[in-house]
Write a structure and sequence with these properties.
Elements (H helix, E strand, L loop, with lengths): L1 H4 L5 H29 L3 H22 L4 H29 L3 H18 L1 H9 L5 H6 L7 H13 L8 H6 L2 H73 L3 H17 L9 H6 L1
Helix pairs in contact: 2-3, 4-5, 4-8, 10-11
Length: 284
C-alpha cells in the first residue's frame, strides 16, 4: 500500500505512518504472544490472527495517509491479492517440507515473510504504477475499486475452513482469480485511458471550431474595412477636386467641415489591433 501512494506521501505523513506502525506493532506482538500462549499454536488460531491482523494496520494507514476512501479500498484489495499469491506459494512449499501442524504453521510464517521480502522489488515496480488518476474512480472505476476486495472474500471464506492443508486443486485454483483480475484491470485501465483521450480530442476539436468561428468573424470585419477603404479611395479624387473648388471660392468653413466628415468616415473603417494575435484581437 505504501508503494502505491509513495509518489504523493509527504514527510509528515511518512512520520505519522512510521510512528503509528511502530506503536501498533508493539501491541500486536504482545497480543499475538498472549493469543498463542493461551490458545496454543493451532490452525484456527493462526488463521484467525492472519484474518484479523490487517485491520489495525489498515486503519493506521488511512489515518496517516489521508486519501480518497475508494483509492484506499482499491489499493488494499490489490495488496491482499498480492499477499494471497505469496501466501499460497509458501503453503505449497511448506507442505512438501513439513508434516506436523506446528511445523507447518511456523514454516509457513517464515517462508511467507521470506517470499514477501524477496518480492519487494517486484512489488515496488507493480504497485508504484498501480493507482490510476482520481478521475478514473470518479467517472469509471468506482465499482472497479471494490472488485479486488470482493474477489478476496470467497477465497478467505474457503480458507477459514478447519483443515490446515487443503487440496491441491483448491491451492492451484487460488492463482486463477488474481491472474484473471490483473488482466481484467489492465484492460479497464487501457479502456479508460482511451476514453479520456477521446474526450480530450473532442474538446480540442470543439475548441478549434470555436477559434475558427472567431477568426472568420475577425476576417469578415477586416474585409468590410477593406471594402470601405476601397470605396473611399475611389472617391478620393472627387473629394480632392471638391476641396480645391471650395478653397478657390474661399469657402474655408465648408472645406473644413468636409474634411472633418471624411476623417469620421475613415475612422469607421478602421479595425483596431490590440496585439499581433488575431484570436485575442477578435475576442477584444
Amino acid at each position: 500500500m505504501y508503494f502505491a501512494f509513495s509518489n504523493g506521501i509527504n514527510r509528515a505523513e511518512k512520520k505519522n505512518l512510521a510512528g503509528g506502525f511502530l506503536v501498533w506493532s508493539i501491541f500486536c506482538s504482545i497480543g499475538n504472544v498472549f493469543i498463542f500462549s493461551h490458545y496454543g499454536i493451532h490452525a484456527p488460531v493462526y488463521k484467525f490472527v492472519l484474518i484479523m491482523g490487517w485491520i489495525p494496520y489498515f486503519v493506521v494507514f488511512m489515518a496517516a495517509v489521508r486519501r480518497n476512501f475508494v483509492q484506499h479500498v482499491f489499493v488494499f484489495g490489490m495488496s491482499e491479492i498480492w499477499s494471497l499469491i505469496w501466501h499460497n506459494f509458501s503453503a505449497i512449499i511448506v507442505i512438501r517440507l513439513f508434516e506436523s501442524e506446528q511445523e507447518i504453521i511456523f514454516g509457513h510464517a517464515i517462508v511467507y515473510l521470506m517470499l514477501f521480502t524477496v518480492s519487494l522489488p517486484l512489488a515496488r515496480r507493480f504497485f508504484v504504477n498501480l493507482l490510476p488518476p482520481k478521475k478514473f474512480f470518479k467517472d469509471y472505476g468506482k465499482f472497479v475499486a471494490f472488485l479486488p476486495f470482493a474477489m478476496i472474500i470467497p477465497v478467505l471464506l474457503l480458507w477459514l475452513q478447519e483443515p490446515l492443508i487443503h487440496s491441491w486443486q483448491e491451492r492451484v485454483s487460488r492463482f486463477y482469480l488474481p491472474i484473471v483480475f490483473f488482466f481484467f484491470y489492465r484492460h479497464i485501465l487501457l479502456t479508460s485511458e482511451q476514453l479520456q483521450e477521446q474526450k480530450r480530442t473532442e474538446q480540442n476539436f470543439k475548441r478549434m471550431q470555436e477559434q475558427l468561428t472567431v477568426l472568420k468573424e475577425y476576417n469578415r470585419l477586416m474585409q468590410e474595412g477593406r471594402e470601405k477603404v476601397a470605396v473611399i479611395r475611389h472617391d478620393l479624387r472627387h473629394s480632392y477636386r471638391l476641396i480645391s473648388v471650395m478653397l478657390q471660392k474661399n469657402e474655408f468653413d465648408a472645406a473644413r467641415d468636409y474634411v472633418a466628415s471624411q476623417e469620421t468616415l475613415l475612422g469607421r473603417t478602421k479595425v483596431k489591433d490590440f496585439c499581433q494575435t488575431p484570436l485575442i484581437n477578435a475576442a477584444l
